[in-house]
Every structure is written in C-alpha cells, then in structure tokens.
Amino acid sequence: MTLYVGKREALEDAFIGRDDEMPRGKPRSVTRDAMRRLRANKAAMAALFVFAFIVLAAIFGPYLIPYDYETPDWNAFTAPPSIESGHYFGTDQNGRDLLARTLYGTRVSLLVALIATAVSVFVGVLYGAVSGFAGGRIDAAMMRFVDVMYALPYILFVILLMVMFGRNVFLLFAAIGLLEWLTMARIVRGQTLSLKEKEFVEAARAAGVSSFPIILRHIVPNLVGPVVIYASLTIPEIVITESFLSYLGFGVQEPLTSLGTLISEGTDAIGAADWLLFFPGGVLVTMLLALAFIGDGLRDAFDPKDR
Amino acid sequence: MGFSFKTFTGALALSTLLALGSAHAKELVMYNGGDVTSLDPHKLSGDWEDRVEGDIFEGLFTEDAKAKPIPGVAESYETSEDGLTWTFKLRDDAKWSDGEPVTAEDFVFAFKRLMDPKTAAQYAYLQYPIKNAEAINTGKIDDLDQLGVKAVDDKTLEITLEQPVPYYPSLLTHYTAYPVPKHLIDKVGDEWVQIANIVTDGPYKPVEWVPGSHVLTAKNEHWHGGTEKLDIDGVRFLSMEDVSAGFRRYQAGEIDLMTDYPKDQFKFIQENLPGQGHFAPFAGLYYYVFNTSKPPFDDAKVREALSLAVNREVIGPKVLGSGEPAAYGWVPPGMNNYPEEGARFDWAEEPYPQRLEKAKALLQEAGYGPDKPLNVTLSYNTNDNHKRVAVAVAAMWKPLGVNVSLENTEVKVHYANLRQGAFEVARAGWLADFNDPVNFLDLLKSGIEMNYGQWSNQDYNQLLDEAAKTQDLDQRAGMLEKAEKIALDADAALPIYFYLSENIVSPKIEGFEDNVFDKHRTRWLSMTE
Amino acid sequence: MLIFVLKRLASTIPVVLIAITACFFILRLAPGGPFDQERALPPEVLANLRAYYHLDDSLIVQYFRYLGRLAQLDLGPSFVTKDFTVARQIAIGLPYTLILGGSAFLLAIVGGIVAGVYGALYHNRSADWMIGAIAMTGLVVPNFLVAPILQLVFGVRLGWLPVGGWGDGSPRFLLLPVIVLALPHIARISRLMRGSLIETMNSNFIKTATAKGIGRRRVVLNHALRPALTPVVSYLGPAAGYLLTGSIVVEQIFGIPGIGRYFVNAALNRDYGMVLGTVIFYMALIVLLNLLVDLAYAWLDPKVRQR
User: Fold this and answer.
1) Looking at CA atoms only, how far is residue B176 from chain A in angstroms?
2) What are the subcellular locations of this protein (chain C) (predicted)?
3) In what order do the strands lie in the sheet with B214-219?
4) B23 contacts chain C (CB < 8 A)
C-alpha cells in the first residue's frame, strides 16, 4: 500500500532528484556551501542566535537566579511579576518562582525533544541506509514495513504508549522517537540508493570492505544534509507533541516541569493570573518560531533550487 | 466497518433532530462534569450521574432542598421495636412516566436485581444492611427470594435488615435504592434504559441523550407532586471535562449552573461575580494513606511526624485558594447522629513551629536524621488540585529532612496501585454516601477494600461492631467518637482537609441551598428568565 | 480504476489487523483496569463485573473472541457508557467529527491556497511578509492555547459567537472550532503553495506563456496553478492524520460530542472496546482520505497515473 505517497515523494524528490546538480568529488563541499548560504540568510541567523540564547538560558539560567524551581515561597502564592520580590516572572499557584520553572521547563522540553529526535535519527538513518544499500528484496520488504507503520494512527499510539509509560516521560519520548523515524528512513534510503553508485563507494567495495563498514564510513557521513534538515523539523514537532500530551494531563513528574505543562496550567488561569500563560507561552512560541526559521534556512541552504 | 448502515442513518437522523430541537421555555443548562455512563440506577458510580438520576427517579425517601431525607414514594413508614423491620406504605398516586403505578413489587424487583451477581452492580454493597443482601451479592446464597425485601401488597413494602441502621432513611435516598419499572424490564430486558423505552418515577424524565454531549430532561406529567410545582421545565446536563472551557461558557451566559470551577479563578469569581460562587462545607474528606504494611510506615512515630509537619492552615486558603477547612479529625463536621466536632488530634491547637520541632524529635526517635534521611514516595492521581497539595506537602516535609519523590499516575493506575498496596504514601478521598459518621469510620476498619493502608486495630474494629448493634443514638455516637480518637492517636492515616462543595450559580436561579451533601434537586430550584 | 481502489482497500486489511493487535495488547498490558476507581469494589463484585464482560478469560481467548465478533461487525460493549454499544456511540459521534473535520479540511485547503497564491504573486512585498508571519504564528502556537483565547475574545468579551457546544449545528457554533482546527494547516498549505507557485512561475513554460502576452491572472489560474498544486495535494494525506490529533483537543475544549475525545477518555478509562473501535474508525478514515488524495494526485501528475 502506498500511503503518504505524496509527502514522501516530495521529500525524496528534493534530495534524490538533486543528483545531477550535486558537485562531483568530495561531498563535504556541499556542506560547506550550505553553511555559506546559511550564514547569508539573515532571518535564519537571527533565529539561530535567539535559539542559542534560549538554550544557554535553559542550561545556565537556573544557577543565576535567586530562587529554585521547587521550593515554595510561602509568602507569595500566585504573585504577579515584580522586581522587588525578585520573582521577575511572578510565582505559580504553589508559590514557586515562575522564571526558575520556565527555565527548567525549557530545559526539559528541549531534552525530551532531543531524546526523541536522536532516537528517530538513529533508527531512521540506520534503517534507511541498510535498506537502500541492501537493495532488492530486502529493500522491498523493509520499505513495505515502513508503509505499514505509516498507516497506523500515530497519535493514537502515542496516547497508548503514554498509558503504558505514564510514569516516565523520558522513556515515553524515546518510544515516540521510535514512531517518528519513518520519513527519515525513506529519505535516507533514497539518498543511499544514489550514493551507492558513487565512485568512492565502488572503490571501497572493490577494495573488499564489507557492507556494514561501508554504510557506516562512507554512506552515513554523506547524509548530513538531509538528516540535519529533517531533524530540525522533528525537534519542534516533538516539542509540540510534548505540550499536547501535557495538555491531556501527561506531563513530566512534579516537581519537574516542561513548557507544555506550564502552558496548560497557564491556560486555566487566563484572566486571573495571565503571567502564568504569558511567560512560558512566550518562550515556547519564540523557540518554535526560531526553530522554524532555522529549519527553513537549512532547507534553503542545502537545497537552493527551492527558492 | 463494524456498524450497520441503519445505526448510521439513525445517528444522522438524530443529529438533524437535534438541529431542529425546539428551545425549552425554561431550560436549566448545567455543567455536569463527566459523561453520564448509564441511566440505569444499578449501573452508576459518579456524583454527576446522581444529579441526573435524582431528578428522574424517586426512591422511598428523597431529599429536600437541604438534602435532608423526606418521604418520597413512601407515604408513611413504621419501624419494628428491634429496628430491624421497616414497613413502608407507598403513595397511591406514585406513577411511572408511562402512567403505570409504582408498586411494592417494583421495589422488590429492584433490590433483587441490584443484589443479583449477574447484574454486576458496582454499588450494590451500599445496601448490604438488608438481610442476606451481602450473601446473595457475593454468591453465597443463590436464591434471590431470600433477600429481606417483601411486597406485602401492591402498596406495602417490608424490608428486613441485618442490623438496626439509624441512618436508614438517608441510605434509602441513594440511587441504589430507587425502584425500577418491572413491567418494562419484563418486556424489553436491558433495553429498558434506552431513551426510547425508559420510564422513570421522579419529577423529571429523560427525553434526549447524546453521549459525550448531554442528557436532557423534561417534566414528568405523571409525577405525584404535580408538574405545576416544578418551575424549571427541564435540565440540560452537559458532559464536559474541560472545566476552564465550561467556565468561559458560563461567563458568556451559555451555562446557568457550574458544579465545578477552575481553581485559579477563585479570586476572579469573588471579585467579579459576587454571590455566584457557592463554596460550602461538604461531607467529604481529603486524606493521605500510609501503607502501614510497609516499613517505615508501620511505625506510628513516623506517621505522626509526617502528620504534624503538614500545615493544614496553609493548604485550603493558600495552596488551593478556595479556603477548604483544615482536617484535624477523621469525620467531617455536620454529620447526623454525631457531635458537631467529633474527635480531634491532641496537637490540633499547637502552633506550627512547635509541631515541627515535635515532628523532628519523633523522626529522630524512629531512627531517621541528617545521616539517615527518610525517603518517601508520595503518589497521587493526575489532577491539578492533587498536584498542588502534593507539592506543598512535599515542601512541608522537606525541613524534617525527608526526601519526597512525587509520583502521579492516571486515576485507574492510581487506584489499582492502592488496591494492590503498591505505594508508600498516597492521596485518597472520600465523599459521604449517606448521612452518618460510619461512612468515614468504616474506611479504617480491617478487611474493608477501601482501607488501602491496611491499618488494623482490634479496639477500633470492636467499637465499630458494637456501635452497629447499638440502638441508643447517644451511646452509639460515644462509641464512634472513641473509635475516631483511636484512629487519630495512632495516625492511621493523614487527614488534610474537608471538601467544599463548589458551585457557581447564575443569579437567575433561586432556591439553591448550600448543603453538606451538595445535592440540589431541580424540583426545589426556580429560574427567572 | 475500480480495481486499483479495491486493491488499495484490500491491502489495508492487514494494516488494520496489526493496529488492532498492537492496541489490544498494549492496552491490556498497561497497568490499571476498567473497574479500578475512587471507590474500591468488593472482590466479589469485581469478579461479577469481570465475568459479566468476559474479562476473566485468558488474553488470547479474549483477543480471538474480539476478532470473531469484529468479523460479524460487532464492536462489543462499552464499559463506561453502558447503555450504548461501542458501535452506537461511534455512529452517534461520527457525524460531528466528520462535519467538524471536513469543514476544517476545506477551510485549510481554500484558505491555504488563496493565501499561498497571494503570497507568491506579491513575492517579497509587504503583503507576502504579512502572510508569512501570520502563517508562521499559526504553525507554532498550540491549538489548546489558541482555542481559549478565541473563546475569550469572541465569545466572552465581544459576545459575537457561542463559546462552545454544538447548539443546532449552525455555522455560528462551528466557526471557532473549525478555525482553530484549520489554522496550522492553512499555514502549512499556504507556505507549500507559495513556494511551489514561485518555482512554477520561474519555469520555462510559464515564461513562454507570459512572453506570449497572456495576462498574469490567466497565466496563474490556467497554467501555473495546476502543476503547483502537487505538493499541496501530497500534504493532504498527512494533514488528515494531523486533523485527527487536533480534533481531540478541539472537541474537548469546545464540548463537541465527536469521536476524537472518546479516544483519550476511553484509553484513560481502560474502555478496551471503545479504544479499539475508535482506532479502527480513524484508520478507516485516514485510509479513505489517503485514497482520495492519491486519486487527486494521479489526476494532477500523469507520471503517477501511469504506474
């Protein structure tokens, strides 16, 4: 069965059809070219700085502020932002500093996205490369399995997994990564199909190197472009999935928090304590916007014919 | 794939019907929380279902505006000397909504059906005081006719109990004691509860039910009280889980009565909707269970230390914001057949810093200190309020040198864990089913499923057993109070606060009386346009 | 053509079977059961209930019993809404979901294409930037955040539209939920449309047409639009899946009795039959939509038709 024919083909076309335009010889220059183009893209560079700032703040911020994320301030429950008290973002319903919680929440959201993306990249690249390199009936069977997986209602399975792994969000997102690798695998397979005809692969094969080392040493490093682009699209998707699950009541375990959890708590307080929605919501939207611009920039950089 | 074309067209027809549905003259729209799971009184479990069911059915007793039991289908009753036999005379004008009379046989049939293991009624155990009820429900007696419920004649019902039950009228207002229409069930079986078939004997009858959306009721013209006594023409009980969205609909005037509210909006409601927020004491207890079968919670000192360190005065007013009263006892105030206060912790009046010192000392005695910190896992089911309380309690325990890890699971998993004893300290709650303290005290009795912590004390059990046999109410109250004190002294569990009933009532509605059971039958309400 | 359709439909059966099997076992292995609740039941009553629903048999027996019933088009009872079978509940909820999802789908397509064409025609001018910015925002703001805000503004403050409910099913009630549901897809489609139309406009045959002196409007509508639609159409397949995710949230916030919110509730309630029923239905919907999308794709792209 061929579900999602279009989406796949569009993505595959973008990477495989480019074959002729690709400069021969060392493919690293592709990456270098792309980087040059990316640096010239002002919007993407600005987004990159914003994103870097958010990441740095999430990592180091908690050490620089006077409050931690779990101790209530018994004198300030649901207190609005104020400079004097040092609660610059205000406090939540448990009297905990919202700035600290937002920073921590950002950290958790990013971590969770990173885990899921890493799992999906790992599985997708390996699966796609093996499938493409093996070719023939193995390839057909492996791609048939991907087709089957595509037809499963993804979000329903995420919810079922959540029911199973409800206790451990990190495990849950590793599991989500295991559902997210399909497109990655298709793209990588397509790339591999064209790469394996290249001279340097032929040369390695002629030199008697066996299949798996060839995949690892010669194929995978040449997949950087599409993998980076696709990963940059996966991260925001996972962040949104995380916030969606939080909204359904399956966030991380207290006292940890995530942006999604903070926002879904904040929406209940609209009109009564707007800062609870405003700050975490602002960070989430800024971060996703930045990621979207970076993703766009990367795509343009690696695939100049798009524009 | 899996449903017939007929049902599909039926659904389409239904939705067009809905589209054409005429507006009621005086329709009360109520935010009713979860989905109503059944209209069959033997298959319910939630208070949101009780709101529907209590409007459409009427038992031997029913509730007045303040939720006090008053005769319903029963016109009068007599009790035998030993308190075991109750004889009810049914009203002559009690009728089902199809005009058939409500007979004693309907009640007999209902009680038998309730206890029949094949019905698998979840709340059958509430009516276990009836003679042989428990034995029949648990399969020890096969013969349903042995149940202590008899129709003397068409309009006379005799119920025999295992033991005298002073709160029996209150128990008879519960939905497990409603009659069901035998004449209909004989004819159509389980299908009787379908909206096209169902007949009821309450002031209202259900006329429309869209699962996931609402149940709509209309006046029952055969109700013995007469439709002219009812001001409201019908109620639209909305199934909605998102209470914040519900509150926005209330603000826009789409909903007239909220049976819950978003906690964060408390201040907003007090300031902007004066008089509309009804927050009143509610016969319910919010508590933490200690798993007393597991060390270190088998040590009363550890339990007491943890209980001492919970600053209950902060939880209601600050953490939850709506001012739930602190619980220093086990039985909520305002229960029948019981002194207003009941027993309390000895230290209830002590200032918090002093309690904290005491708690530290107790933990030290139990062998915990800076070099050997106590690790506690605190479990709660996923819910905003539970989360807030747990976070606050964890922070209160921290100064004792206790490391708390919080663990939230969805409600099904939480209660499965409680049942299997897979927890250390866990959140639980109890809402009264009937107006008597044993409702709460039974929770700590040995061998009761709800005694999740497995706390066991023979004196306590004995006092409860004796009280059950005692007819003199004052004497009985004394025994129960003594039992409560035993449980508190031993820190059997950790009571935190007593629930508040939380209703947001539109100024259009009159006759809404706050009461400890949070029951507000529509027949007592009126509404201005 | 008919054979193609029938073959496609037949090939979905194994996928559906895999999904049912996976759901069945994941759900059963998850902790907690349908009758675990705030008030513990005496063991005898629990045993009565489990016997009543045949939950006391072994898992394998239950699995094959379920399949057997399914073969007779019987989806079984619901443990929660006991007066309705699963099939009845789905039959009642389905029209709402279809109307909601269908309207959102249409709005997304029309709105997205119009915005995309507009953006392409005013390429790099302020109108284009505006549309781009709005689309970006639509993409990154989670729907559970958009919905309450729209409810507050248009329902509570301005009082123009109902805040929630289905009412009489008139457009007034549908407007907000449909917008919330369609928003991210309008955004994505407009971006796809814009990019693809710009590219098409730069291609040689359009340049020739323009050179011939055909008006810009006619060139776009008669020549460029159809080939430029390809990526949009290929997006529609996955969009169907995303709409389902969105409908879970939208139905919950707006109080619409569709089948989207059943899924989450059923999974949480361990209402096994209901979960499987919704999964089967959603898969059927997605498969059907993808079939339509592929047919549309074939109509647009002759290359695919020949396959």
Assistant:
1) 32
2) Cell membrane
3) B204-210, B214-219, B234-238, B27-31, B257-258, B493-505, B277-290, B425-431, B374-381, B402-409
4) no
The pLDDT tens digits for C123-178 are 777 878 888 888 888 888 888 888 988 998 998 888 898 998 888 778 889 999 99
Which two tokens mark C204?
């040689």
Q: What is the pLDDT of residue A1?
A: 22
Give the total number of structural domains in chain C.
1
Averaged confidence pLDDT in chain B? 89
Q: What is the pLDDT of residue A29?
A: 56
B254 touches chain C (CB under 8 A): yes
Q: Please report whether residue C25 resides in a domain.
A: no
Rounded-to-integer distance, Cα C61 and Cα C125, Å: 66
Domain carrying residue C227:
98-270
Question: How many B×C Cβ pairs under 8 Å?
Answer: 200
**pLDDT value at position C12?**
74
Instruction: Output the domain CATH number for residue C226.
Output: 1.10.3720.10
* B409 Cα to chain A: minimum distance (Å): 7
pLDDT at B497: 94
On the question of pLDDT at B524 being above 90, the answer is yes
At residue B449, what are phi and psi to the nearest 5 degrees? -60, -35
Q: Which chains touch C (3 or more CB pairs under 8 A)?
A: A, B
Mutate to test the interface with A, among C264, C278, C303, C305 (most CBs of A within 10 A): C264
> What residues of chain B lie within 8 A of the CB of A77, using their CB?
318-319, 321
- CATH 3.40.190.10 domain range(s) in chain B: 10-239+506-527
Q: What is the mean pLDDT of residues A185-210?
A: 81
All domains of chain A, ordered by start, with CATH? 40-59+98-306 (1.10.3720.10)
Residue in C with minimal Cα distance to B8: C91
Band of the pLDDT at A6, cuts 50, 70, 90? very low
Pairing of strands B234-238, B27-31: parallel
- Among C28, C72, C92, pick the best mutation site for testing chain B contact (most B Cβ within 10 A): C92
Residue C98 has pLDDT above 50, yes or no: yes
Lookup: tokens for B493: 């569990």
The yes or no reply on domain B10-239+506-527 and CATH 3.30.2130.10 is: no
Three-state SS string over C20-85 comes to HHHHHHHHHHCCCCCCCCCCCCCHHHHHHHHHHCCCCCCHHHHHHHHHHHHHCCCCCECCCCCCCE
Pick the CATH number of B281-501 from 3.10.105.10, 1.10.10.10, 1.20.1050.10, 3.40.50.10610: 3.10.105.10
Q: Is C152 exposed, middle or buried (0-12, 13-18, 19+ CB in 10 A)?
A: middle
Tens digits of per-residue pLDDT, B164-185?
A: 888 899 999 999 999 999 999 9
B63-114 pLDDT per residue, tens: 999 888 999 999 999 999 888 999 999 999 999 999 999 999 999 999 999 9
- For residues B144 and C31, give the distance between their C-alpha atoms in angstroms, rounded to a whole number: 36
Q: What is the pLDDT of residues A50-85, one digit of tens each?
A: 999 999 998 998 888 888 888 888 888 888 888 877
Among C30, C24, C97, CA closest to C268: C30
Put simply, whether A269 touches C (Cβ < 8 Å) is: no
List of chain A residues whose C-beta atoms are within 8 Å of the C-beta of residue C263: 156, 159
What residue spans in chain B does CATH classification 3.10.105.10 cover?
281-501
Asked, for residue C26, whether it belongs to a domain, the answer is no
| Probe site for chain B from C41, C75, C152, C279 (most B CB atoms < 10 A) | C41
Query: pLDDT per residue over B261-300, tens digit each?
Result: 988 888 889 889 998 999 998 889 999 999 999 888 999 9
Question: Does residue C179 sit within a domain?
Answer: yes
Q: Collapsing DSSP states into helix, strand and coil, what is residue B158?
A: strand
| pLDDT in the model for residue A49 | 93
What pLDDT shows up at residue C127?
79
Asked, for residue C290, whether it belongs to a domain, the answer is no
